[in-house]
Amino acid sequence: MGLDEVIAKLVEIHREYQIGGGLDDADRVTPHICPLADLKEFESDFIPEIVRRLARELGQPLPKGVRVKNIYVDKGRKLTIREIARKFIEKYAPKGCRV
After folding, report:
1. What pLDDT is attached to residue 21?
2. What is the arithmetic mean of pLDDT over 76-88?
3. Which distant-in-sequence residues (6+ apart) come within 8 Å of 60 by Cβ?
4. What is the model's pLDDT at position 31?
5. Predicted confidence band at 20 (pLDDT cuts at 50, 70, 90)?
6. Rounded CA gap, 13 and 82, in Å?
7. How many Cα neighbours within 13 Å face the side chain of 59?
8. What letter does residue 65 receive in the DSSP assignment?
9. What is the CA angle 75-76-80, rounded to 5?
């Protein structure tokens, strides 16, 4: 699992969330947007579900009981999808994955 793969999957998942929510801004989802700041109706409540789905779709599902941390912010700053992907790898990817 590499950074580019995680970024691409996060973009895909966020686009699906926007479309599923009936929103017309799915095409705005790129590695450079901040979901918490730039996407209509995106809320932090979605984060645990997205992190678990991301891990599962990348073939590394999180074990039951793992508490999902908010990897969408760092020191009070809302992160871009690229930055979120990097934090995902640091927190949840198997050892040896490249950031």
Report:
1. 83
2. 97
3. 1, 92, 93, 94
4. 97
5. confident
6. 13
7. 5
8. T
9. 90
What is the rounded CA–CA span in Å between residue 47 and residue 69?
Answer: 8
**Which three-class secondary structure state does DSSP give residue 4?**
helix
Please count the other Cβ atoms lying within 10 Å of the Cβ belonging to residue 75: 4
54 within 8 A of 14, measured Cβ to Cβ: no
pLDDT at 96 over 60: no
The model's pTM: 0.91
| CB neighbour list of residue 56: distance below 8 Å, 6 or more residues apart | 62
Instruction: Evaluate whether 80 touches 39 at the Cβ level (below 8 Å).
Output: no
CA separation for the pair 20, 64 (Å, rounded): 26
